[in-house]
Structures are given as C-alpha cells and as structure tokens.
Amino acid sequence: MTQNTSLSYRDAGVDIDAGDALVERIKPLAKKTLRDGVLGGIGGFGALFEVPKRYKEPVLVSGTDGVGTKLRLAFDLNRHDTVGQDLVAMSVNDILVLGAESLFFLDYFACGKLDVDTAAAVVGGIAKGCELAGCALIGGETAEMPGMYPAGEYDLAGFAVGVVEKSKAIDGKASIVPGDVVLGLASSGAHSNGYSLVRKIIERSNPDMNAKFDGERTLADVVMAPTRIYVKQVLATMEKVTIKGMAHITGGGLLENVPRVLPENTVAELEKAAWPRPKLFDWMQAEGNVAENEMHRVFNCGIGLVIVVAAADAEAAMAELTAQGEAVYRIGQILARQGDEAQTRVI
Q: Do residues 181 and 78 touch, judged by C-beta distance below 8 A?
C-alpha cells in the first residue's frame, strides 16, 4: 500500500457496517425490556426516562460494575450468552439492597474487532437480565478499538439506575438490632465473584470441563451459570414484610459484605449447617486446598443475598420469598458486638 492509497476506517480496523448490523440485532432485544417511563428508543445520543408518577419523594439509586475475570472463562469455553445476565445482576442486585426498583440499564461493550454474533449473544444475555429485573435496556455503547484487545476478547461494564421512595429506603445501620434474624437466599453458583481463584483451581486440577459434574450439568455449565437476579421477588416481599437490611454477596464473600449493612455494635452469626453448600464450592475447596475462612471471604458459598428481619417477621418473610420462587434459609442471628470482634462470623 502506497502513501497515496486512500485509507478508510475499515482499513484502520473499525467496521462501521458491523456496528450498524449489531444495532439492528439489538433493537428487538431492547424492545422486549421496555417499561413505563421510557421516552425514547435505542440509537439516540442519550436516553430519556421519566420517573414513575406513583413516587411522591423519589430518590434515585445508581450502581455500576463489570463481570470480572469470569469473562476469561467465557472466551476459553466460547460461551457468551450468560455473561450479559451477570453484568446486569451485579448492578441491579446492588441497588436492590437499598430497597430500589430498577428503572433502566446501560451497557458498555469494548473489543478489538467486532464479531456481530458474539456481541449479539452478549447483549441477548443483558436483555434477559433486564427482563428478570424489570428494568429497561435503554442504551449503551459498542466500542471497536483495534490494537486494544486480543482477537476474540472483549470487556463489559454496566450501569443501572433505580428509584426508591425516600421514606422506604432501606438502611440496615439505622434499624438492625440484636435479636434480629438473618435469612439467606440461594445463589445460582459462584455468580461473578472470585473467578481469579476459580480459574487458578481449574488450571491446577485440569478437569474435563464438558464432563457431567452436577446431575446433568457439566462443570462448564456450573461455572458459567449466570448470577441470580433477586429484584422482583424481593420487591414483592417488601410489600408485605418489613426488611431491615440486605447485603448482596459479591467480592468479599459473606465475611466482608454482611458487615456493610450492620450497625457497629452488632455481629451477624451465621450457621454454615443452616443451608446446603452447592457441589461447586466443595469441589473448589478440595481441589484448591482452600481454607474454610478463605472460602467465606471470597465466595458466596451458596448464599447470594442476605436479608435481615425482625424475629417476629421471619416466618412471614420466608413464606413470601418462597412463594416468589426463592430458596430461602434461616441462616443466623444478630448479636451484640463484644469489643472489636469481626462483625460476621460463620460457625
């Protein structure tokens, strides 16, 4: 190619036509997530959303996150249809703990060279996650950046906005007291946390990822299972039972996430025999020779969302959550803190 040859954006590695094709693939997926409040569709410079009029003193709640190194397994296993749900879950579950209803979601997909089929599979997972959360996929950004990412790889980030009535915002630090009950909602697996350790364990044990592992599911199925989204089920429960505090069990596991919602003078004592630990966690602990405390400090160990309620409300909360389709366990209690002891312990 001579210096006088006319160059195009495609010659530089960016395919505008592929980007346009992806937008057309995304539009019907986004349309399925539309809800009250959306004032515009995909494709504008910005997205318009009107806060539902039923809120008297609306407070906006926002959250942002990625999928982390679980993406490395998605590349290695060529499985791209579930990480989008992981992306949504990380943000909508986070804002849920404040009592917020999810309103809308924006995604950011970056790659070196755009593969329309792969990107469409990822966005399909994002749209499914939005449907599960009851929020609208209202916009996003697809960035094709030659030279920035290895072939076949991409990165994801997401941003959720929700709303809660000011008087109903949940602040565990202001309401949780000794004697309250701790409930745990079952996770769907490791969700999207601790995957640097997950990958290290897989590297060490070198298992057959396609062999049957848990019933009919392969190990690949289990490690790539998308994060459970608790939004609709918990919001429905909040209509009938007072929830004092919630913790989304993400990076830091049970030991570091539960204290985030506790008053400084309290401790959450959790009984590990109170809930079944999925086979994946037992396998990882054995194959990686991971200490028990480290397991609870890194992984959710089978509990994806922790809920604190008054003892008098525990049975009603469990009944309602079960009716909403959740596997719920009474996993512990709130005690008075002695000195500077750790605020969460698993016994």
A: no
Helix (H) or strand (E) holding 141: strand 136-144
Give the rounded distance of the alpha carbon of 164 from its chain centre: 19
Count of CB atoms situated within 10 Å of the CB of 38: 20
pLDDT at 2: 58
Q: How far is CA 236 from the centre of its chain?
A: 19
> Under a CB-based contact definition with an 8 Å cutoff, are residues 275 and 187 in contact?
no
Q: What is the CA radius of gyration of the chain?
A: 22
The structure tokens 């994060």 sit at 227
Which helix H or strand E contains 61, and what residues bound it?
Answer: strand 58-66
Q: For residue 255, what is the enclosing H or E element?
A: helix 253-257
Q: What is the pLDDT of residues 160-215, one digit of tens each?
A: 999 999 999 999 888 999 999 999 999 999 999 999 999 999 999 999 999 999 99
Structural tokens at position 276: 């079944």
pLDDT digits (tens, 9 = 90+) for 287-307: 999 999 999 999 999 999 999
Q: Which string of DSSP letters, residue by residue, matches 149-197?
A: S-TT-EEEEEEEEEEEEGGG---HHHH--TT-EEEEEEPSSSTTSSHHH
Are the beta carbons of 84 and 128 closer than 8 angstroms? yes
Q: Which segments in the chain show pLDDT lower than 50?
A: none
The rounded distance, in Å, linking the Cα atoms of 265 and 29 is 47
